[in-house]
């Protein structure tokens, strides 16, 4: 559903308790520090709504994730599939699952179109519940798809149920959770509806709980979970928008479709810092996270897998509303040129050390990521799971990678004297980076990015 109450409902707050039962508080509390106030600044933001789902004791059980197109806390949904695509990309790629859900589950609305799309598998089944919208006709094709998704590990919820119908009874074996709309259901028929659903062993959620009387009544009927304005309005989360070029996504999809190897995918991704940022967030948000810091783009590609990359590119392409001129974006140009310069310099320092060259490239890309996403380096790097030497180079310019970054920045400013002084300070194998070689590397890096942008 778009929101768990009517637009006119007053924002009444109930006293609820946390899982330990200690202390009352005016609304459902989460266990993560991501309570952002939505605001509009000079940089574009993306927004996400989340509304708590509580258990019988008032403890937080889960969140329903809701599309928000602006800083105004309202749905404005004209296309269910597109709205859910935005919810997924913002949860998985912009904000990150840990920040949005903490240790709880997320309910995500599903249109018929998305139920049959392979994109749904971007959502880790252990973290998300697929909420089938009320207007989806539960024909045999849909029920068979739900059965397959349940075999894949997903839990299925039926949304906005208000009456006991033959169609509902036929579909109940394919669901795990049923959300009953207290505003739409006839009170006289509710006991029979609840009894029939409970008899099938399904979890019952009372939605659109707007008053203390609604809560007491629903709890008395035997509902397991509760959602509505009585507990909390949807909370607004926001994050700076990280744009991924539509052209980059189309080219990436074409490569995946042609069944190229990891090396070719890696080469394509190197030219698109925005896509790399999204990929790192995906890897760290998914059930396929590598369990160790990522030190190269190749590791990120391998951790995600080509199928997951294709799903992500499809979803980003679907969710993006217009073609973005990435080739003329000065920040993208700088990130692409710097990363390639650092890779070339690293290969000059250690011709046979591909790992070091990859780490240098990643350092160059992520040295500007905090500007790309509008945050501090430390806060941004914390979400990306990069290897320590890369993080320390980006946030503190420490180690050999940090020194390479300082040299790259000096060359970008045309400060040859500083670049030469830094090379001298580093000593050792850095001595190979003569002023003449640095000039050549800078030209090669710029020419490489320009050739790619023009191609």
From TrEMBL:
Domain EAL, chain residue ranges per copy: 1-248
PANTHER family, sorted: CYCLIC DI-GMP PHOSPHODIESTERASE CDGJ, PTHR33525
Name recorded for this polypeptide: EAL domain-containing protein
Region (Disordered): 1-36
Domain of life: Bacteria
Domain HDOD, residue spans: 239-432
